[in-house]
Amino acid sequence: MGVQEPRCSDEIYLDANATTPVLPAAVGAVQEVMQELYGNPSSTHITGLRARHLMESTRQLARQVLGTDSGHLIFTSGATEGIQTAVVSALSAIQKDSNRLNKPRKLLLYGATEHKAVPNSLKHWNALLGIDAELLAIPVNHQGLLDLAFIRDHAADALMICTMAVNNETGARQDLRAIEEAIRSQNPQCLWMVDCVQALGKMPLALSASTIDYAPFSGHKLYAMKGIGMLYVRDEAPFSPFIAGGGQEKGLRSGTENLPGIASLKPILEALLDPEHQCFRSLDTLVAFRAQLAATLKDAFPGLVFNNDFGVSVPTTLNFAIEGFASKELLDLFDAANIRVSSGSACSSGASRSFVLDAMGLPAWQSEAAIRLSFGPAMTQAELDAACDRIRQAADALKFSCRHPQQLRPEQALKGLVQLKSGADCCYLLVAGHKAVIIDPVAPLVERLVQTMSCQHLEVMAILDTHGHADHQSAAATLRQRLGLTDAELDPLGWPAAAPQGPLALPCLSLGELTLSRMATPGHTGDAIALLLAKGDTIQAAFVGDTVLHGGLGRTDFASSDATALYSSLRALAQKVPAKALLLPAHDYHNLLFTSFEAEQRNNPLLADALSLVATMDAAAFAARKTALDQALACPQGASEIRCGVTLGELHLRPEQELQVADLARFEAPHLIDVRESHEHHLQHLGNDDSAPLSRLAQYLLDHEDDAPLICYCRSGSRSQVAAAALSRLGRQAYHLKGGVALSR
Ligand code: PLP
């Protein structure tokens, strides 16, 4: 089986807040500049003069669009440069002003939902210029609007205040007049920057009629080229060139001007100024577009909630979450349907949740599952209709197995072990025939579990918890209710009262040829158990709750914890469970998927010492070390995610584990594992046999006991990297296709 290529032909691009395609008129203008108007605007010959004319006429148009009949309007390389220039200008003026520099309290205020370019620039230049001011985030309300009272309370001590006109993740539009009043009523001198990147073309701007000191813009967010931006600077605002040199832009920004970039802005600005222009839709039309998209999304994904308040947002941004789905899963689904959207903020990649939605106080799951869908004002009705059709197709692919159970391909019917995740919480599903056991359900997964049970026609035998979770509530009771299970005779962890003894001499449930036995493992909590999955008397895997975590041991600083008991439980468990058998914890903070005693003993010195046959560590010594560890890990009160005793960082693959397609030939009989989900295969019309999405990789290992090299691949190389790292940590020879099938053409 070879690595399949995606069909990338008819892409639907709904990620305009990250960047937009270049408008055909702008492409034409750029081409003309490169072929005909290539002069240097500083040259005094005719070629240079023509170039200068193009530059100055574009600046004039920009002044009209931005409402800037005064102040400077400088061409920059983009908004990040504009932001630096504003911050350096403001802070270097403050540095020279002893009255301001020596104030008893000096604040640099910025909106809590600002693009990272803003707080990071403030922090950087505050340190470098020795201003030594305190950086303070202005809180926002649940709509993402800035707290005006907070601004009023702190403005008197503020040296600079940075706010944004429109947020890039939610489209939330700030009331600039109200912010101006809050600042100026307290501090007319304070320097005020407004990041207008996402506002251009989406709301009217009248900069010179305001007291905004600095306003950065970026061309690539509105159909111009990348590498071109603008900075407005008010006449009264201090200015210090960020780039010094040949004195271009009247000495305000040196370096030969980016004429192709400037040329690409011109048709955009002309279109914005011409109400009859066919290119950009009216505000009313954009609002109607949003309504159509929102209705389609709601209809296609019943569990969908919007994270942004349409009443205070520009119409071109929709931010949503679907209960039970991580944003990465949805992103992969949309990408497989050739719809480009983004998860949380594209600019803060790596983050698993959105700091913007966190600042708005949205529930953790909404922040973890956030998807941003954004379009530009040049969107057409035909493009919108196509996007809506494709969204329905994506949703249908997700429901595929439910709507057509008789058409299920073997890999679509659930069997064996399935790992579902909500953030760092793991829930497991064990399926044999038409029976299922659910282990450690959490609330955000309830809807998904209910749907899965019904569409796969599964009968739920038991819903079990590995312990009474100290940091979150089990969703077992809700799930039982939703599934209409009314079994009365259950213990608090969901275990049937009359479970018989099984082959491991422990109470057990039978699932076809498998058994699930219950073993007490007190320590993290008093009631903790491990669930041992066995075929005959061979234990294949153990659901260990928080007793053993990837790279850690469950915390023992809860009321019902006992570090001494944990020591005995670990030793008893390690005696029963083979060193290579899979351990499946209740949390997975670093996407390691599974572990084993062997892997943990390599990675966790405390566990290694506790289990060592030669070491002399006793329960008391273990408890002392564990207690010290717990103290070092103390979590802030109210933290939504308690990392139960895990300190491990991310795992990195060795360069030789990252393969190009050409490298595949060097392996003799590897297992090629496609880790994409089955709905992605459906959307891409693939029929891969060797498919094991991350959620079923554990079962793949149980099914393939040989030691052949494992080569994982997926769409972009991100999930395959996770899989290879997890497998490699387990001690397997694991590799992945770098860049995924997206780059394998
Ligand atoms: N500010 C906001 C609100 C943005 O959305 C972005 C880009 O995502 C930037 C600043 C940075 O812009 P640039 O890419 O032009 O540096």
The biggest beta sheet is recorded as:
5 strands, mixed
Helix % is 25-40%
CATH class of the largest domain: Alpha Beta
- What structural class should be given to the helix and strand makeup? alpha/beta
| Count of the separate structural domains | 4
CATH superfamily of the largest domain: Ribonuclease Z/Hydroxyacylglutathione hydrolase-like
State mean pLDDT (0 to 100 scale).
90
Number of helices: 22
* Rg, nearest Å: 29 Å
What does the model show?
With 745 residues, the protein is of the alpha/beta class. It has four domains: 12-18 and 281-401, Aspartate Aminotransferase, domain 1; 69-250, Type I PLP-dependent aspartate aminotransferase-like (Major domain) (Aspartate Aminotransferase, domain 2); 448-632, Ribonuclease Z/Hydroxyacylglutathione hydrolase-like (Metallo-beta-lactamase, Chain A), CATH 3.60.15; 655-743, Oxidized Rhodanese, domain 1 (3-Layer(aba) Sandwich). Helix content is 33%, strand content 17%. Strand 19 (514-520) and strand 20 (529-535) form a beta hairpin. It is elongated and about 90 Å long. It starts with 11 loop residues before the first strand and ends in an 8-residue tail after the last strand.
